[in-house]
Specification:
By secondary structure, this protein is α/β, with parallel strands linked by helices. The chain is built from 20 helices and 13 strands. The longest helix has 26 residues. The two termini are 28 Å apart.
């Protein structure tokens, strides 16, 4: 174990320049102590086979045959049924066409920021290749997403555009054990290409283990700026806190999970709400605290590959194709870039123990090979949390990139470290699960090699 720790220490020393707040020695020490030491043996990795894929799809078909979506809705409480949309077929198609028109218009506006920079073009086509290679796996999720009766899609939580969420209901055997713990999942997408369906892999697997999952959508740039995104996230969290019990949640065990951009938004919303309550400030005085909700209902926060320091990320992402003019336009308040003010790390350092000690337990998960958000961003955030008196832990996944924990690993099958870590946080005890593979390992490895993230 000494060699991995020595390698991690050396890596920390080389990359310490990114963060001026930590000495290279302290950074290296934190990295070495946080490397996730889970090594899954080849015997534990289940081989892929078409028969297993057929079995998975057959189970979805069996669920759909035995319990139609209408039958599942009828089993929900009257309060839950009242929240579900009831569009006609014509209305559904009108809404879809309207969404296509909006997305097309926004894509044109987004193009004015990214232009024809070669980095952006290369990243775009690498992303296309990544998606094409994993399409057989995504197709399996599409079947679940659109046909499983355990999926309640596009439930409105607010009045703004994209104020919708997906609900992943646990299987019936879990309902017999009583109300379920609840996860509120905020997906990523570089603040520009996020969508609630990006959380389907994690949402499906958590719901299979008895967790009620709400996956939030929110306005992306240029449809909305940072303030709009935070408003949407706060609105969605507040809606879940009020309505989860109607969908079978226990009403007391809420866990906030954010990935990438969703990690930054979720952490900032939580810190802002704790600040509002602890300092009894007027709501408008706290960035990211509108609309208000009670943070004491949140039992834990889990950040996955989160972007907690926008100021440190600006130059790094500019070199990778998310250009500074676009990045600053996204994170502007009242027309001015506010990278520090919208960074959870800086906000926490400014507020200190008055807020840090009131935060719920925090678990930060990050890959050591993350090219989009370097792991030092996570290390620095955890250091700030601990300095502020928060109960915070850091786990670094050795050799994992930005997408592997959330996309490739669930498709690979076998031990899913991210699922285990989130589920352990939710259940309050160690959970170890093994997943059926969705794709051959060679195809996943090829996709990972071209992934721009």
């Amino acid at each position: 174990m000494a060699k991995p720790q020595q390698a991690a220490a050396a890596e920390g020393e080389r990359s310490a320049e990114l963060l001026s707040s930590l000495s290279s020695g302290h950074l290296a020490e934190l990295i070495a102590a946080s490397i996730e030491e889970v090594d899954v043996s080849e015997q534990e990795t289940l081989p892929w086979s078409p028969a297993r894929v057929v079995h998975s799809l057959s189970r979805i078909a069996a669920e759909s045959g035995a319990h139609s979506r209408e039958a599942v809705r009828e089993e929900l409480s009257p309060e839950a049924q009242a929240q579900l949309p009831q569009p006609t077929l014509l209305e559904e198609w009108k809404n879809r066409l309207k969404d296509v028109a909006v997305v097309s218009k926004l894509a044109v506006r987004l193009y004015t920021y990214v232009g024809l920079g070669w980095r952006w073009i290369v990243s775009f086509w690498r992303l296309v290749a990544f998606a094409v290679l994993l399409m057989p796996g995504f197709a399996q999720m599409i079947v679940f997403y659109f046909f499983s009766p355990r999926m309640l899609r596009s439930v409105p939580y607010g009045l703004e555009a994209r104020n919708r969420l997906d609900i992943f209901l646990p299987r019936r055997e879990w309902w017999r054990r009583g109300p379920r713990p609840t996860v509120i999942f905020i997906t990523g997408g570089a603040w520009t290409i996020g969508y609630k369906a990006w959380g389907a892999l994690l949402g499906r697997r958590l719901s299979q283990r008895g967790v009620l999952v709400f996956c939030l959508d929110y306005r992306n740039f240029p449809q909305g700026n940072a303030k709009d995104m935070l408003t949407d996230v706060n609105t969605g969290i507040g809606w879940v806190l009020r309505n989860a019990a109607a969908f079978g949640g226990d009403g007391k065990s809420f866990h906030l999970v954010g990935q990438s951009a969703g990690g930054q938004l979720g952490a900032l919303a939580l810190i802002s709400q704790v600040r509002r309550m602890s300092q009894r400030q007027q709501q408008q005085d706290s960035v990211g605290a509108l609309p208000a909700w009670d943070p004491t209902h949140i039992s834990s926060f889990v950040g996955v590959s989160g972007a907690y320091n926008l100021y440190a990320l600006a130059d790094h992402l500019h070199k990778r194709g998310l250009y500074r003019n676009l990045f600053e336009a996204i994170h502007s308040l009242d027309g001015r870039p506010q990278l520090r003010e919208l960074s959870p790390t800086f906000m926490l350092r400014k507020l200190g123990p008055a807020v840090g000690r009131s935060l719920p337990p925090v678990l930060i998960l990050h890959g050591t090979a993350d090219k989009s958000v370097p792991m030092e961003i996570a290390v620095e955030f955890v250091a700030a949390l601990k300095e502020a008196g928060a109960d915070a832990r850091l786990k670094l996944y050795k050799g994992k990139t930005h997408t592997k924990p959330i996309v490739e690993d669930p498709m690979r099958g076998g031990r899913d470290e991210l699922m285990d870590n989130v589920l352990s946080m939710v259940m309050g005890h160690e959970c170890i699960n093994f997943q059926m593979p969705m794709l051959p390992a060679t195809l996943i490895d090829l996709a990972s090699s071209v992934c721009p993230f």
